Amino acid sequence: QVQLVESGGGLVQAGGSLRLSCAASGRTFSSDNMGWFRQAPGKEREFVAGISRSGGLTGYTDSVKGRFTISRDNAKNTVYLQMNSLRPEDTAAYYCALGGRAPYSSSWAPDYWGQGTQVTVSS
Phi first, then psi: what are they for 109, rounded to 5°? Predict the structure, then answer.
């Protein structure tokens, strides 16, 4: 059974930083694409960032390019999202995702989802 457990969310002031982590279990982690989506209240879930199996390829939605960095540690079965220069519009529940193909844009369709971690950015 695949499990994805997110951590690292919280409340931060605008301009601050947070690092999200997602620990995966139940699969050979290095065989799967990974990434992050987010969903703000009243809005649809949107793609944020994705990373290939080896970590050599990444993709980001335009609004976070230059501010967010996705990375993974296959030895620890963990994917990270470093979020800098946070803005109030980044406030959302952030979901870890695993599987699927080409995790580089909003067309990515993961197979598994985590439960989410809340990020709140105050102005």
Answer: -120, 90
36-65 pLDDT, tens digit each:
999 999 999 999 999 999 999 999 999 999
Residues linked to residue 17 through DSSP beta bridges, in sequence order: none
pLDDT at 28: 77
Kind of pairing, strands 112-113 and 58-60?
unpaired
95 in Cβ contact with 37 (< 8 Å): yes
Q: What is the pLDDT of residue 97?
A: 97
Q: What is the DSSP letter of 107?
A: T
- Secondary structure tally for the chain: helices H, strands E: 0, 11
Find where tokens 């290095």 sit.
30
